[in-house]
Structures are given as structure tokens and as C-alpha cells.
Amino acid sequence: MKIAISGASGKTGYRIAEEALKVGLDIRLLVRTNSQIPDNLSNLEKAIISLTDKTSLDKGIEGCDALIIATGAKPSIDLTGPARVDAFGVQNQVESAKRVGAKRLILVSSLCAGRWFHPLNLFGLILVWKRIGEKHLETSNLDWTVIRPGGLNEREDDLANEAVLFTGPDIQEEAYIPRRLLAKCCIEALNTPSSIGKILEITSNTENSTLTMKEAIKRLTVKEAN
């Protein structure tokens, strides 16, 4: 499988690329002009894209089987960023994937996506725009998975004993997860067919029992059926 990773120079994106390398995936990094790539990823295939340029998106994704969307607006005084990146930017990437035949899409979104009353919405209604991006993916007829992480941190130590808590949408309110574990979940989703068509909220702690994504989805399915 060849995967394209957009936002690959970001704090989450480069970790996704590192985790993809660990399992032997063929990778293309989709980055903007002047993006800085970590030295250990500098030899990977790259494509320069703009989220508003269909031609560059098509060229970047063409020939890939899957796309992991790890682009995201940063809190800023520019309150138009969330609309441009998290809604229209996602929409443009989804449409490009459809045009060039990339069937599998993983979208990194956020816990509480779609909520109106949340402090993060002070930064240009970011959670509202993220939900609009999600909805476009959900109606794309592609094999999609939305991953909604809790608050992200940079921790890299002592993760072996930290378990990911998987739930369905609109269950978890607040908790955290290291970006490294989020990256691992994105790659795990590629190899978990039962994650297709699912919104998965993820946080982590040392108290939960460790489950694979496949096991967690099976439990969630049984719970929903009852």
C-alpha cells in the first residue's frame, strides 16, 4: 500500500510518517512550500501542495492507495484559518482523492468536533469547521475513518504502558493523548477494515486495559447492538 500524508511536516504528520515507515509502508509526504521535514524523513518522496490548488493536490495524491489527512488550523488571530483548512481544505483533499482513485482516507479531526459551546471555538469556530470537514468525508463514498483525538501532547516516554481508550462519536468530553499514540492509531486504522465508516474518539491513560482497534470496535459494535 502506498499512502500520502498531508500535513506531513506538522507535529502529528511527521510522527504518522515515522510510524508508517516502521511497518514498511510506501510513503509520499504532502507538504507546503518551505515546510521543514525532520532529517530522518528527508529522503522520502515528497510533493508540494496547496490546499486551494486542485492540480497540486491531484499530483500529490495520484498513484497512492490511501490518504491520511493530518492538516489542521492552528490557533491564531487569523480566524479564517479553521474554515480554510479544516473545512474547505479537507473538502478539497477528499475531492482530489476521488478524482485520482485513492479509495482509503483517514482524517485526523478533534474530540468535540461539531460542538458550538467549547473554548476552542474562540479560535474561529474551529470545532464547527472540523465537523463540516468530517461530514464531507462521510458522504464521499470512499472508505473513510475519522479519528478524533483528545488534547494532544508531545510526550514520547513511558508510552508502552499507556492504553488507548476508543469510543464512538460524542462520548468523550476531555482527556489527552500523546501525538505518538495518535500516529500509531492512524496506521492501525489502515489495517483495520472494521474501522471503515467509523468515527473513533481516542484518548489514553494507564488505567484501561490494552485493546487493539479491531477489538475495541468489536466491543463498541456489541454495545451499540444491545
Account of the 3D structure:
- The chain has a single domain, classed as NAD(P)-binding Rossmann-like Domain (Rossmann fold, 3-Layer(aba) Sandwich).
- 34% of the residues lie in helices and 22% in strands.
- The chain is an alpha/beta fold and 226 residues long.
- It starts with a strand and ends with a helix.
- The longest helix has 20 residues, at 81-100.
- It has helices at 13-22, 54-61, 81-100, 126-138, 179-190, 213-225; strands at 2-6, 26-31, 45-48, 66-69, 104-108, 143-149, 151-153, 163-167, 176-178, 198-205.
- An eight-stranded mixed beta sheet has the order 3-2-1-4-5-6-10-8, sandwiched between helices.
- It is globular and about 45 Å long.
- Helix 1 crosses helix 5 and helix 3 (81-100) runs parallel beside helix 4 (126-138).
- The mean pLDDT is 94.
Architecture blueprint of SSEs:
Layout: E1 2-6, H1 13-22, E2 26-31, E3 45-48, H2 54-61, E4 66-69, H3 81-100, E5 104-108, H4 126-138, E6 143-149, E7 151-153, E8 163-167, E9 176-178, H5 179-190, E10 198-205, H6 213-225
Parallel strand pairs: 1-2, 1-4, 2-3, 4-5, 5-6, 6-10, 7-9
Antiparallel strand pairs: 8-10
Helix pairs in contact: 1-5, 2-3, 3-4
Summarize this, please?
34% of the residues lie in helices and 22% in strands.
The CATH homologous superfamily name equals NAD(P)-binding Rossmann-like Domain
Secondary-structure element pattern, one letter each = EHEEHEHEHEEEEHEH
Quaternary state of this entry equals single chain
Please state the average pLDDT score: 94
Q: What fraction of the residues are assigned to beta strands by DSSP?
A: 15-25%
Shape: globular
Q: Helix proportion of residues, in percent?
A: 25-40%
Counting DSSP H or I runs of 4 or more residues, the number of helices is: 6
Label the CATH architecture: 3-Layer(aba) Sandwich
By helix and strand content, what is the structural category?
alpha/beta
CATH class: Alpha Beta
